[in-house]
């Protein structure tokens, strides 16, 4: 199956049957997608709409997509430029990307990461330490940051 066929199929599925709390649509071409993710339930981000960009590389699915947050997020695994530290976005041997991972699986994993930070693999060390040792303060700051920077979902 060609890259274009796979992308068409994956994007059609995301548009026709989006996972709960995730909206995906092509921006200017199939290689650039705009993503909206609603913060997961029972997290400091609950009810907040986050904007993201997803860029499909020429060698997809053998190379992972590039994904970043446009909306600022206070999170141990997301830096101030919106870059995400997540195993599925990295190539082996250090990462977990596999050509069998779909865009839908990847976006659901990012949404899950919002609600379940990984302080053992942080981009923001100070936030990871706060998450580990003062979770209540982390959640307060994350909630405030989400409220100030995100949009409330309806």
TrEMBL record:
Taxonomic superkingdom: Eukaryota
Stretches that traverse the bilayer: none
PROSITE patterns hit by this protein: UBC_2
Classification via InterPro entries: Ub_conjugating_enzyme (IPR050113), UBC (IPR000608), UBQ-conjugating_enzyme/RWD (IPR016135)
UBC core domain ranges (all copies): 2-151
Identification of the protein by name: UBC core domain-containing protein
